[in-house]
Every structure is written in structure tokens, then in C-alpha cells.
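User: Mind C-alpha cell order:
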Amino acid sequence: MRRIETGDLWWKNAVFYCADIETFYDWNGDGCGDIRGMTERIEYLADLGITCLWLMPFYPTSRKDDGYDITDFFGVDTRLGTLGDFVELVRTARSNGIRVIVDFVMNHTSDAHPWFKSARRSTDDPYRDYYVWTDTEPPDTSAEVVFPDQEDSLWERDPKTDQWYLHHFYKHQPDLNIANPAVQEEISRTLGFWLQLGVAGFRVDAVPFLFARDGAPGDPGSFDPYEYLGDVRNFITRRLGDAVLLGEVNVEYEDQKTFFGGPDGDGLNMQFDFIGMQRMYLSLARGDAGPIAEALQDRPSLDITSQWANFVRNHDELTLDKLSDTERQEVFDAFGPEPEMQLYGRGLRRRLPAMLGGDERRMRMVYSLAFSLPGTPVLFYGEEIGMAENLDVPGRLSVRTPMQWTAGANGGFSTAAARRLTRPLPDGLYGPEHVNAADQRHDHQSFWWFIRDLIYTYRQQPEIGWSTPEILEQPNTAVLAHVCREPSGWAMVGLHNFGTEGCLVPLQLEDVPTGSVLVDLLDGRGEFPLDERGRVEIQLDPYGYRWLRVLRPDEPPII
């Protein structure tokens, strides 16, 4: 593959950045972030190297689930701005080389949505079949609820008609009946609307729940959910040829392959690697690279158009549900031993810096790993400066505090009085006086500059986004050595030490011509010559990391 061809599937070597408009930057000083504030900060994201901005929900909402309880799929929450503001945001982002994708909640609506308000009036209402109902009392589903601290069933009785409606999440978020062609038409209208306003695609929320009817009567046997997912993909690419679908699919790897669309890759373009993320935290807790190495080896092969999204944390609880009970407890003990640090018995409500006690060596190693793995990196706002959580904020919102721009009042997020802010900022060691973007952008040794350098280096190594992982066996269990190799010959070796002690890492690369060297991409372009058998030894510091590009004798120097 020629380098020029790597732009054909732009998401294969993009850098995604997830932001919540409400907590990013307050332009009008009312204490709530807004779209015009987001627009003001586009140049900041461009300077960081971001190429795709993922916006969390900004639609009209009943405000019971941080915007995921939508009352109108075609509008903008009036606190955040207008559709005109949104169009200007997309235009500004495009002019700075940044695509915009938006959260699309296909699984459910708010119970305040006009569809549901109409549907619950009678069993004959035209919108009744937009949702999933049963007139027989459902079985006990308490073990299946997503939020066990707030719900005890997937079904809720509606007294008006004495029937039960399905809700995989909160009872105020009734599930849509995706098998209904009328609902499918509404989904297409919504997707088409936002594509027409300039978005480059969608992050689809809670994909596995879209098609789970949980034994509801009347489920049409002819409906194939995976075929429908392919129909959605076809629809958006007809409207915009390079539109992308990024799916939240927290299932086992083999099941994820089905959501990609199988061998043809005609389903979701991208999926988050939840298993790899969870195994990475287990490796961190143990100081042993084994768990993450196993996850990488278990990744199924994908169609060339499909891609993994690598992340350190997202906007929800840091879920550990794919670990065993014993493994999960290991991670809890290491990074969230107190009950208030945990959530739902399966996850952590913390950000990485606080979990690691502010140890920047380990932080840098973790992000180096995330960017070096085959796939596309996704950052959650504030990660680039090492923001931490505020455990005084309830539930999952503890990690969704205002962006810390300066050391000044409210961290430069807003000029409003502190009591009017959407959420309180952290204080102490991770408060804005110690952790903020302005100070770090002026300090070339800061974490912000480290992340910026990672992004720019990642963007210059197309083999990372276009390869599958190859694990190089190591005598030291603390070391992960992997190769990103693309068929045309590009190759990069990633080394990461999960241990507390430095070590010498032996490498042997086959199929490398005599006279080749490994060039250190992150540390001054130092060179390590390979012997005639492709062997070399590399020193790694405690929690050390290196990206080593294979430079063959006939290739031009790396500049």
C-alpha cells in the first residue's frame, strides 16, 4: 500500500476526541458549556492534533441521564445553543481539518418524547408499536439490569393501559422497537438530517441492546438485526460516501465480529476494544504484560474497512465486566479500593491520573501503549492534561467535570459564580491550579506536549492503523513487545514495561534485510542496528516505552 492510499479510509489513522459540550467551555457565562464555546476551542483541538471530534448528546432532553434521554432527535438543547450554532461549529472544525461525529441514541427515547407520550395513551395509538410492550407480567429480570442501584427490572408497568414497556436502561428511557419499519424510517430521517448538516458519522450508543427484545411477544421472526445494521451503514454511505459508524459494543470478541458485519465488514466501521482496555488495566494492576498480550492475540481478524478504537477510559464508568470476579477485585484493590470509587459492582468512577497516584511515568507508558496498538486512538476530554475525577459528583458524572483551561477561577471554564456551574471541579492536587491546559501548553515537558507528540508520531506511522498485532515473546513477563506490520513493508515495534524495574529487552525480527536499524521515534531518533540475524537488545526504564521504526538500508532517513 502506498502512503497516499491511507487517506481513503480516514478513520483508520484518525485521532478521535470525545467532548461534552456542556462541560467543555462556557462562552456566554451562564455556568453551562455551549456550542459557541466548543467552536472557540476548535483551534486548541487542531493544535493538539485531533482529526475527529465526537460530541456527546446535545439534543433537547428531559435532563435525567446527562443528555442520553432525548426528547427531540432533530433539535439542540436550548441551554447549549441553536442549530445555527451547530452548523457553524461543524464548518469551523472542517476548516481546521477536524471532522465531527455525533452521539446517536438509537436504542431508546426519553419518556417525555412526543412519541412515547402519545404511545402510552392507548393500545391503539399510532405510536404504540414504536416501543416494546407486553400485556403479561414479565419474569424477574433484576439480574439483567444495567443500573442495579436504581432499577430492579427491565420492564415497567404503565398504569394507563396496564401493560409493561421494555427499558434496558432507566425506566424513563423506554426502548424503541427497532423491528418496526416505521421506527426504521424515523432513524433514517434522523441520520439523514444530521449528515445534511455536515457531520461525518455517528457514534452509536449501546448497540447490543438495540435488538434485544427479551422475549417480548410479537417479535417478527423475519427481522434480522445484523442485516438492519448493514442497512443503516448503506444508508449513511449513500448520503455521504466516507461516513463512519463507531459502535459501543461491549461483548466478547467473536460477537463483535458479527457487529462489524462478518467477513465482508458491512456493519459498523469501528468498535471500541473494551476487552483490550480491561485486560490492560489488569496488566497494570499486576505489573504483568500477559493479560493485554492475550487480548491482542485473541482479537479476530477484520475486513480492511473495519477498525478497532483503542481507549484508556470513556465517559461512563470504567467497566471491568469482562474480567473474572477475582481479576476485577485485583483491579479494584490496585486502583479503586474504596466503595465510593466503584460503581455497579463492575467498574470504577475514576480517571487514570488519580488511580496511578499521579505517577506520570506510568501515565505516559499507558498512553504510549494505547496509541501504539493497531487501531485508532480515542481520547476523552481532559486526558491530554491529566485531569482527574471529582468523587463528590454522583455516579458516572464524577469523570464528566468541567474542562480545566487555566489556573484561574472555575479553571477558566466559565465566568459564572461557582455555584452556577454545571458540575463542581476537582480540587487539591488535581484541581485547575495544578492541572490546566494553559500552563501545560507553555511547558514543553508537560503531559499535554507528550500527548501532542504521541498524536503527531502516530499520524506519521500508517502501519499502526492498518495492521494486526504480532506479539514478540519476551523472557520478562512485565514487557509487552508487539509489531505493527503492513503488507507493503512498513513496520514498527512497540515496547512497554509494566514493571517497576528497568530491563534489557531482546528482540529478533525475521524477514528484515541485513543492515537494517531500529529508529527510536519518541526519543531523538536514536538508532539501534540489527545484527545479521535481525537481533538487538534494547534498554527499557521502569515503566519505560519505545516506538521503534524498522528502517531498511534502501529506505530514506526518517526526518
